[in-house]
Amino acid sequence: MSTQSLSGKELAGDIRRRAREQSRDLGQGGVHPALAVVIATDDGSTHWYVRSIERAAEAAGIGCRVMDLGHDATEQALAGVLRGLAAEPSVHGIILQTPLPAGVRAEALVGLIPPEKDIDGANPLSLGRLAVGQPAFAPATARSVVEILGHYRIPVAGRRTVVVGRSAVVGKPLALLLLERDAAVTVCHSRSGPLERYTAEADIVVVAAGKTGLLNGSHVSASCVVIDVGTNVLADGSLVGDVDADSVRGVAAALSPVPGGVGSVTTALLLLHTVEAARRQSSSEPLPAGALHAQVLEAAG
Fold first, then answer.
1. Interval 113-166: pLDDT, tens
2. CA 201 to CA 79: how far, in whole Å?
């Protein structure tokens, strides 16, 4: 059978266009959306990712300030920078990029990002608001999965959906987003037992565990839609996901590629979140819960 490729490129382009147009409109009113990215690592892949955000922001007319504190930055130094950015009116969105230096507690830092500037949903307050349906930015990667499903008009309501991975960055917020859309959600993790016990009869499987080749063709049915969130760098420098794509192609109904799937949409959503944050902060009016999601789907549909 032929497996549909759920590329994120068209959707990402549409979201970037919307971000660019909205940024231009805000600029005409004297509001210039701006994003700050704080990093403290010498990890090459992280710096590559941050540069991709810079390029995308520039193309969308969004300011992007990268603050590199170095791989030996202290927790106190990072906290000082985040407090300063939180208080700076000209900065509308803040990202604290991981990994962080050894001994630095991410949980002690993300709470310093105000929810209204927390465009990647890192602050626990953002996750809590998401859980009860209050205005909040979901982590962009988690939201990207939902947007891809919507872009390809894949039904979610009532569908048996398995999320593999329970991180606060993807697995948990994604489960909340899917529940909001009436999916029947199961979250699997390292203690869940054989993966196929849950995935064999699933309509949708999202893999976000950070383990190469975790899901293969024997784990899924012919009707299954597979979304691969994993980003693993091999020894030769190539990027692969958590899914053994070669074995899943020809078995599953659809599969998102790595690269070119979730990742491209994630970057685009960070730009749109920044623009939306700028609009909220300039007008002092909260965005109704769910409005951003509906807006993106309308643009993509």
1. 999 999 999 999 999 999 998 889 999 999 999 999 999 999 999 999 999 999
2. 46
Tokens read off for 235: 């020894």
- Please provide the size of the chain in residues: 301
Q: Which residues, in sequence order, are CB contacts of 72 under 8 Å at separation 6+?
A: 101
Convert the pLDDT of each residue in 39-76 to its tens digit: 999 988 788 889 999 999 999 999 999 999 999 999 99
Residue given tokens 């939902």 in the structure block: 146
Please tell me the distance from the alpha carbon of residue 177 to that of residue 175, in angstroms, as a whole number. Answer: 6
- Burial classification of residue 237, based on how many CB atoms lie within 10 Å of its CB (0-12 exposed, 13-18 middle, 19 or more buried): exposed
Q: Pull the structure tokens for residue 247.
A: 């074995």
Tokens of 93: 């969105």
The CATH number of the domain where 212 resides is what?
A: 3.40.50.720
> In total, how many domains does the chain have?
2
